[in-house]
Amino acid sequence: MSRPARPPPPPPTPKPGQVKVVRAMYRYEAQQTDELTFDEGDTLYILDMSDSGWWKARCGDKEGLIPSNYVEENTESIEHPLHEASRRGNISFLSECLKNRVSVNGLDKAGSTPLHWAAHGGHIDCLETLLKVPNVEVNVQNKLGDTPLHSAAWKGHPDAVTLLLEKNARADIKNNDGKKPYELAKDPETAALLKHAIIPRTFSTDYGDEDDSD
């Protein structure tokens, strides 16, 4: 059976947030040198879909072309892969997603970013990696009005709170219930960190009173 002829593919021009991520259900064996071989279960990052018949993909450290109908028929889509990595604290998958240009500021159905989920789980290595991305948004509010700082406060992760504050997370933002992050904190250490962050600098020398002023 003859293979369809195809012209040289155009240079890939992927845009952040446009990367399609799928998991292969079967092995695909490259038939030509510019195609990509991968195994069942491999994660594929579809980088360029400008050619309707052949898409450019990355698997691990290798790139190549795969037939678009294979993706449609023989893979399963991974929805919000960076969110999933952040939720589970899977730093290797998270780093791989960022390397393959999955958007750090993408929103899931709840309006949350990967940073929300890393903060929610207190996954410090994931938080540190996400916060190193130059365009990461630290004060995004989800559909509940919560920022990543609200998430870290509610779940009682003082180390995550500290990291976010160091990256200019705002402690004075109110969620849809009118709550600031410190009002969601259940443990004293987290609450103290957040209260201190919203005390005006002019009062920062008033030692000993900051926890008794409610």
From TrEMBL:
Keywords: ANK repeat, Cytoplasm, Repeat, SH3 domain. Coiled coil: none annotated. Induces bone resorption, acting probably through a signaling cascade which results in the secretion of factor(s) enhancing osteoclast formation and activity. One of its GO terms (biological process) is signal transduction. It holds the Pfam family SH3_1. CDD domains: SH3_OSTF1 (cd11772). This is Osteoclast-stimulating factor 1. The keyword Disulfide bond does not apply. The gene is LOC106178881. GO terms for cellular component: cytoplasm.
